[in-house]
């Protein structure tokens, strides 16, 4: 299996990934499909601007932001002014910021590179925005394919890459594969039912039956976001552990700076 068989080709412009990132497909030393992503010739600020919009979308719905706006306006009318960080939709913990950034990028990439949909933004339901959520980092669905397909994603951000983080990504996806049906599947279905999307919720829920019948395809995609040495560590340390596993690496010149730029001012939303 090559990377395109797992999640399709790298998006072309005008898709933001095609505009701001370049891609090279290869195999790791142990034969795992590996796509190397890196910043293109466009300015990093352009990619940061795109990521900021995705981060808002993944952390808070328009309805959440509108309620926050009305609450802040009421506070101001009462003469208390706008309290700093009242909303609390975005994390302040540095590690959570980085983890969320990588997770959001992977979700958007899977949605762009293949015919898959991320129907629920799970960060909307995080009861503590400064802690990472449990469960699958990303679940993307191609409910119209034959067979129906789910992509299970595991994303990690490291300022400096290492053998261990690559092994952690592969181990997490291997554990998910051993469990069988993705642990967050019912969470996604329940959220769809709650939002009134019963037809889509039923299709997602039916994936459990398709799995039992052997009619569900599961693909596993890992992402390492780090510095320019990220692809080297993925190439050396991503080992074949199962069928239909692929790894993405995103090499950034200044990974810490990119995340800081993307989060700057988001706590003042809306």
Structure description:
The structure is a single chain. The protein has 270 residues and is α/β, with parallel strands linked by helices. The chain has one domain. Helices cover 44% and strands 17% of the residues. The protein contains 11 helices and 6 strands. Strands 1-2-6-5-4-3 form a 6-stranded mixed sheet.
**CA-atom Rg in angstroms:** 19 Å
Give the termini distance in whole angstroms. Answer: 44 Å
Oligomer: single chain
Overall number of strands: 6
Integer tally of domains = 1
Order of helices and strands: HHEEHHHEEHHHHEHEH
The main sheet orders its strands as 1-2-6-5-4-3
Helix count, per DSSP? Answer: 11
- Uncertain runs are none
Mean pLDDT: 92
What is the percent of helical residues?
Answer: 40-55%
Give the biggest sheet.
6 strands, mixed
The fraction of residues in strands falls at: 15-25%
Structural class: alpha/beta
What is the molecular shape? globular
């Amino acid at each position: 299996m090559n990377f395109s068989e797992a999640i399709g080709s790298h998006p072309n412009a005008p898709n933001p990934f095609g505009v701001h990132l370049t891609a090279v497909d290869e195999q790791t030393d142990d034969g795992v499909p590996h796509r190397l992503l890196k910043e293109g010739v466009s300015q990093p600020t352009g990619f940061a601007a795109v990521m900021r919009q995705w981060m808002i979308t993944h952390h808070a719905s328009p309805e959440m932001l509108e309620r926050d706006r009305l609450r802040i306006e009421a506070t101001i009318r009462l003469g208390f002014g706008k309290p700093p960080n009242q909303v609390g939709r975005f994390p302040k913990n540095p590690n959570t910021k980085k983890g969320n950034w990588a997770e959001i990028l992977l979700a958007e990439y899977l949605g762009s590179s293949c015919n898959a949909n991320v129907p629920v933004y799970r960060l909307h339901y995080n009861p503590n925005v400064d802690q990472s959520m449990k469960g699958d980092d990303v679940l993307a669905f191609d409910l119209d394919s034959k067979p129906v397909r789910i992509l299970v994603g595991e994303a990690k951000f490291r300022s400096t890459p290492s053998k261990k983080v690559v092994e952690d990504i592969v181990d997490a996806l291997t554990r998910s594969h051993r469990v069988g049906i993705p642990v967050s599947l019912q969470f996604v279905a329940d959220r769809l039912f709650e939002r009134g999307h019963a037809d889509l919720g039923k299709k997602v829920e039916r994936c459990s039956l398709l799995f039992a019948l052997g009619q569900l395809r599961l693909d596993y995609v890992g992402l390492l976001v780090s510095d320019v040495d990220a692809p080297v560590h993925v190439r050396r340390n991503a080992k074949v552990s199962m069928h239909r596993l692929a790894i993405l690496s995103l090499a950034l010149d200044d990974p810490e700076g990119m995340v800081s730029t993307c989060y700057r001012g988001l706590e003042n939303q809306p």
